[in-house]
Amino acid sequence: MTPIRNGGVTAAILSWVPVHGPTPPLIGPYRADDLGGCRELWAELTQWHRELYDDPEIGGSNPGAAFDAYLSESAEDGVFVAEIGGAVVGLAGLIVRGDGRAELEPVVVAEGFRGEGIGGKLTEAVVAAAHARGIRRLTVRPVGRNEAALRFFHGAGFDVLGRIELQLELRPERIDRRPGPELAERRFRL
Question: Using CA atoms, how far apart are residues 85 and 102, in angstroms rounded to an integer?
Fold first, then answer.
């Protein structure tokens, strides 16, 4: 079992977060010295979305810097990181929306560390923080094409279909859409 770093509400609730693997990561609250590693992960997440949608414009010219804007929206005490040997290999955040609602956004694990349970442990840390804050409903919004994320979140207990976001492509030539699921007797694209 890996101890969580000191600090924040979550540390008081979670004294241990078990993570298995050759070198278990330390899961804990974001610190200012995690900024560079989190920017790199954000850039990796952006690149994943660029490839997923075949759109090099996603995230702009400096996608890692977008983490700074995210940090101001989520507040530092809502961001959790996974570290191995002092290097940030994962991050997850809790964005409190008010009225007992919050969002888990994002869960990112560096490509070389995926499949080792790190994303699950980060998700557990965010869920525990949401419980500690009295949150009634925690949502996630993976993009429709990200089947791996849909499976991951469903496996983590996010199995209630709440809100669906539909899009009208105003520049349809930019994105190659593929057939998606059928809901309400209607076929959608991803």
Answer: 31
